[in-house]
């Protein structure tokens, strides 16, 4: 089945954008995934096609109207199979590789991109949108965030990456950063390649790579290293969709948000499946 991405945006012409190139672009043309963009402005009802208004309570900036955004979301939901619906926002759960793998295991995603000060919170709640951030900084709009998230997903779809570029051995695949890479020439500007890589001894190469991955993770990302080192006993982040709940061996002791109806009732906004508003 084709993995289906629907983007709800004020700038539909930004898609597929860079995802039309390289591996993602080839995958798109081969039908491994599909993308459609829904222009929020097309769902405005007044003569001026207004999509935003001033914030209640005062303050700077404009807020995207819930009625207009909701109508655009409804069209995106109706256009494909039932999929998690996400709102890209710097206030969301920070995207990581485990979330990406979980999204890829499903039929696709609906992505709502904000602009201005963001979207009226009532539409986020009414549709049960999963709020996702791509990092602790603020972009001017959700579109670049949607492109980043989609790129991370699409490259993992079957048939998109070649075997040579397999995502099995790379940073974050098993909780470690990746070891460094080298190619020809073996000596460049007086800098030699680590001799073990020229030895032809596969077991020694694998041992060196593992040790380097551990060293780099320990030095650069103590947070990842602590989680990796204590993986069997430390709680990890709560799972966010049923796919993650099914794969609990990855996250042994984290609370499960969606599998238990009581948990789900306690945290409905983390589900991400479109609600019938
Ligand atoms: C200028 S930002 C709004 C920032 C918002 N007023 C705040 O302080 O949280 C406009 C839009 O960009 C998107 N955006 C900005 N930073 C993002 C991030 N780190 N991750 C995901 N989306 C982001 C969101 O869709 C947001 O609604």
Automatic annotation (TrEMBL):
Residue sites binding S-adenosyl-L-methionine per the record: 114, 134-139
Classification via Pfam families: tRNA_m1G_MT (PF01746)
UniProt region (Disordered), positions on chain: 227-277
Domain tRNA methyltransferase TRMD/TRM10-type: 5-226
Enzyme class: transferase
The keyword Coiled coil is assigned to this record: no
Localization of this protein: Cytoplasm
CDD domains the UniProt entry points to: TrmD-like (cd18080)
A GO MF term: tRNA (guanine(37)-N1)-methyltransferase activity
InterPro entries membership: Alpha/beta_knot_MTases (IPR029028), tRNA_m1G_MeTrfase_C_sf (IPR023148), tRNA_m1G_MeTrfase_TrmD (IPR002649), tRNA_m1G_MTases_N (IPR029026), tRNA_MeTrfase_TRMD/TRM10 (IPR016009)
Keywords recorded for this protein, A-Z: Cytoplasm, Methyltransferase, S-adenosyl-L-methionine, Transferase, tRNA processing
Keyword Chaperone listed: no
EC number(s) given by UniProt: 2.1.1.228
GO biological process: one example: methylation
Catalytic function, reaction form: guanosine(37) in tRNA + S-adenosyl-L-methionine = N(1)-methylguanosine(37) in tRNA + S-adenosyl-L-homocysteine + H(+)
Residue spans of biased composition, Low complexity class: 259-277
Family: Belongs to the RNA methyltransferase TrmD family.
Function: Specifically methylates guanosine-37 in various tRNAs.
Subunit structure, interactors included: Homodimer.
Record protein name field: tRNA (guanine-N(1)-)-methyltransferase
The organism of origin for this protein: Paracraurococcus lichenis
Lineage: Bacteria, Pseudomonadati, Pseudomonadota, Alphaproteobacteria, Acetobacterales
Gene: trmD
């Amino acid at each position: 089945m084709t993995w289906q991405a629907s983007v709800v945006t004020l700038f539909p012409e930004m898609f597929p954008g860079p995802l039309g190139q390289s591996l993602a672009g080839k995958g798109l043309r081969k039908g491994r995934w599909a993308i459609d963009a829904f222009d929020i402005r097309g769902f405005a009802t007044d003569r001026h096609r207004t999509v935003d208004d001033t914030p209640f309570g005062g303050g700077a900036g404009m807020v995207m109207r819930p009625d207009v955004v909701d109508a655009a979301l409804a069209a995106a939901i109706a256009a494909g199979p039932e999929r998690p619906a996400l709102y890209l926002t710097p206030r969301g759960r920070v995207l990581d590789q485990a979330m990406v793998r979980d999204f890829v295991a499903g039929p696709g995603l609906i992505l709502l991109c904000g602009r201005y000060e963001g979207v009226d919170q009532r539409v986020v709640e009414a549709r049960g949108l999963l709020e996702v951030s791509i990092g602790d900084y603020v972009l001017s709009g959700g579109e670049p965030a949607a492109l980043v998230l989609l790129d991370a997903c699409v490259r993992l779809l079957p048939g998109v990456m070649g075997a040579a570029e397999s995502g099995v051995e790379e940073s974050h695949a098993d909780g470690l950063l990746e070891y460094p890479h080298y190619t020809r020439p073996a000596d460049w500007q007086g800098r030699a390649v680590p001799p073990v890589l020229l030895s032809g001894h596969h077991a020694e190469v694998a041992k060196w790579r593992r040790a380097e991955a551990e060293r780099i993770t320990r030095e650069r990302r103590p947070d990842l290293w602590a989680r990796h080192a204590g993986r069997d006993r430390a709680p990890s982040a709560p799972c966010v969709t049923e796919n993650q709940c099914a794969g609990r061996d990855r996250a042994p002791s984290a609370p499960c948000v969606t599998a238990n109806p009581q948990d789900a009732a306690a945290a409905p906004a983390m589900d991400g499946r479109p609600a019938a508003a």
